[in-house]
Amino acid sequence: MTPAADSAQPKLFEWDMPEGWTEVPGSAMRLVNLAVGADFEEHKTDCYVTVLQGDGGGVDANVNRWREQMGQPALSAAEIAALPTIELFGRDALYVDVEGDFAGMQGDALIEGARMLGAIFIAQGRAVFVKMTGPAAIVAREKAHFESFVNSI
User: Fold this and answer.
1) In this predicted structure, what is the pLDDT of residue 7?
2) How many helices (H) and strands (E) does the chain have?
3) What is the pTM of this model?
């Protein structure tokens, strides 16, 4: 188990590190920041965990923001509610799987033919996000690792 920490709380949670993934320095937003696979520098496939106070903007808005980052149209509330779930922190989290051209958080990191896997839930005054992005073939190869990582948190 690998601990996640920030400056305010030394140990927020633990997880199992997938084989071939490595921890890289985080940021104010990323409590856990992982490089996915040995070819990270070339392909920029990463996975991270963010925990925000409050609702983080809401589930629907975040799902559709992720889809927009991938060049995909928004989903309706009913379509979002019908998405599959994955276990995160022992509860059901919405599981997002979308392909397209990833524009990055600020629209400045284009990865053509990308895929994004994400898990999101809001409970007890916090929004929790786990997100992996990279070239579609690499994300497909790492999907089982992503799922086991999310389940282990």
Assistant:
1) 42
2) 4, 9
3) 0.89
Q: What is the DSSP letter of 16?
A: P
- Please compute, for residue 119, the number of CA atoms within 13 A of its CA located in the half-sphere on the CB side: 24
CA 79 to CA 61: how far, in whole Å?
A: 13
The DSSP string of 129-148 is EEEEEEEHHHHHHHHHHHHH
Model pLDDT for residues 30-49, shown as the tens digit of each residue: 999 999 987 666 668 999 99
Classify residue 119 as exposed, middle or buried by CB count within 10 Å of its CB (0-12, 13-18, 19+). buried
| Mode of pairing for the β-strands spanning 91-102 and 22-23 | unpaired
> For 28, phi and psi rounded to 5 degrees?
-60, -30
At 9, the pLDDT band (50, 70, 90 cuts) reads: very low
| Distance from C-alpha of 23 to C-alpha of 32, rounded to nearest angstrom | 8
Q: Would you say 32 and 22 are in contact if contact means Cβ atoms under 8 Å apart?
A: no
Average pLDDT of every residue of the chain: 89
- What is the identity of the amino acid at 1? M
Tokens 């979308």 sit on residue: 98
- 132 residue type, one letter: M
